[in-house]
Structure formats: structure tokens, C-alpha cells
Task: structure prediction
Amino acid sequence: MNKKIIKTRQITQVIFKNAQILDITGPMEVFAQANEILTQSFQCIEAAYEISLVSHKKGPVAMSSGLKLVADESFDSFSIAPQSLDTLLIAGGNGVYQAGFQKDFLDFIKTQGGQSQFSTSLAQQFAVKGILKETLTWMNQNPDKAMSIDSLAHRCAMSERNFARIFKQEVGMTPGKYVEKMRVEYAVRQIETHDQGFKLIAHISGFDSEERMRRAFKRQLNVLPHLYRKRFGR
Result:
């Protein structure tokens, strides 16, 4: 069998103190297994995926479990250009909220990922000092509440037009897109941590129906809720 030459895709994971180690080692293992399968099945000359870890500083980083992972590079010295980075992953855990206030972390994510690709929790960190702080916090804490532009603008004491303009400027996406991403992320957490029916998950996540949640999952994640649960849920 002739050996195949394929493009190596660069995968980088952002790690930080008190991150959940499974959020990091899980994806690493998936890509490692993919490399092994591709090498055995297609006789690839080079690995399909090259994985690296980046943090505030190069070296050991303590996870929430007490174990340490070693960052290959720091944010300041990161050597992969944005156009060469295929996938940027960010670990979960309590440490993400502390990391979200660090300027080097935010600058790195903005440079490498593009602000429109952020999770809604990270987008909130960018607006944390702006006039939208209280409204964004309320939105993330109440995904099941009505969130029309006029009601959100009223909460900020702005006109609808001014609210929409400032929201996109500070958060990096329109209010409607933010709300959908936020609700999908909330539904994802419910699927990952609870064995609830999709109808209930849709309701508590703020979707009018299970079908609306299904369409939102397809737009945001390109996967349907039941398939997401099959892969990652309980």
C-alpha cells in the first residue's frame, strides 16, 4: 500500500490552574486515537493531528484534581500563527472564570480564535467592564426568560437600535445570536450532567419547543441533541 501524505492539523488546548483535567485529556486521547487509526488504515506518513497545550506560562499547571499538566508554550510566546491553527479548545472548570479576567488569556483567545467564535461565558468576560455587564450576567443566569431586543434594551435603559449596536460592538455578535448560543450551551450542560427528557431541557434552556432546540443545535454545533447525548451525555 502506498503511503499517503496528508496535511497535519494543528490542535491547541488552553489550560489554566484549576481546570478539569478530563476536559483536556479526553480530547487529547481522541485525537491520539485518530492518529493511530489513520496511520494503521491509510499508512499516513505524518500524524493527522498535532496537539499542543498553552497556558499563562510554559511548564506545569495544577488541575482541580491536584495533578499537573505541562504547557508546551505560554500565551506570549505562542508560535502557531492564527491562520495555521485549525482548532482551539478551552478546558472547563472553576478556573475558567478566574482565567477570564486575565488580559493575556483574553488577548490570546481573541487573536487566535476570533471573538465571534467564543462561548457566551467568554464573550461576557469581554463585556464585563462595559455597560452590558449586569444584563449579560442576568441573561446567563436566566436562560429560560423572555429575551426580545426591546426587553433587553429596556433593561439597559437604551433604545433598541443603540442597544443592538453597543451589544455587537462589545460582545462580538448580535443579541439574537448570543441568546441562541447561550441557550444551546446551557442545554449542552444539562445533557452532559442530567438524564432529563429533551422536552424539559428545551423548556428550562429557554426554547419554545424541542424542535426549536433541535434546529439551534444543528446551527451552533452541527449535531442534533440526541446524537450529542449519545456521544457525551449520561
Q: What stands out?
A: The chain has a mean pLDDT of 83.
